[in-house]
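Record passed on here:
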Amino acid sequence: METDQAVDKIKRDLEERYGKIDDIRPERLKFDETLKEYSMIVRFKLENEERVVVYYFSKDGNILRHFNL
């Protein structure tokens, strides 16, 4: 899985839930050898409120789950 692919999927997911989001700041995509999945922390603004979400992806690039931090 590539970082750009993960960011595109996250952006689509966030826009489906919240509408248009302009300021998305992803951190580095990481792979967990134990769980065999990727994770990425993303910061974004929604109505002047800073939010942080961690997304988890399968090896083939599907979103498994996400959590608000």
Notes: The domain at 3-68 is CATH 3.10.450 (Nuclear Transport Factor 2; Chain: A,). Residues 33 and 40 are 15 Å apart (CA to CA).
